[in-house]
Amino acid sequence: MKVEANGCVIELVQGDITDEETDAIVNAANTGLAGGSGVDGAIHNAGGPEIMAECRNIGNCPTGEAVITTGGRLKARRVIHTVGPIYRGGTHNEAALLASAYRKSLELALSERLKSVSFPSISTGAYGYPKKEAAEIALKTVLKFLAATPGSGLKLVRFVLFSDTDLKVYSETLAHLR
Ligand code: ADP
Asked: Looking at residue 87, which CATH number applies to its domain?
């Protein structure tokens, strides 16, 4: 599924984010930038040790914030590492923190003059965020950001969903938001 919003394309696809050729891919990292399971492990495996070396230099990243490193051996030249919230019932500021993770990642993409960026479904794996709620926050945050930054140079925001089911959830959500 593909829609246009304020001069930028938002695209939803199923796949492995480490194969993406966008200017940057976003990593669902942890606050220690220490690597881990899921998409984080896949990115470090595919991108090689240069990414972790830069992560060590940066040190850490608070929940809801984002930092940027090289893409190492990835096709994407850069990796934006952001930290989504661990879901604890929805009453611990999770929604605002998840929105912030997307927004700060997009702000970094703009300040680095990137034209295309791919996101995974942040917080919905090991961090347990319910998929439908997370999809709504992710897509609303991107739409709001694009509306607030017309002519920014960002031409493509792609969501790379790992499973068929996730792609369906995101597609239905985007269809309702449009
Ligand atoms: P978090 O700790 O933020 O929940 P996870 O990596 O555990 O992060 O999961 C986030 C999402 O990324 C999940 O929906 C998971 O299925 C998905 N995922 C895992 N590996 C990949 C990959 N290689 N490409 C894209 N998405 C992936």
From this structure: 3.40.220.10
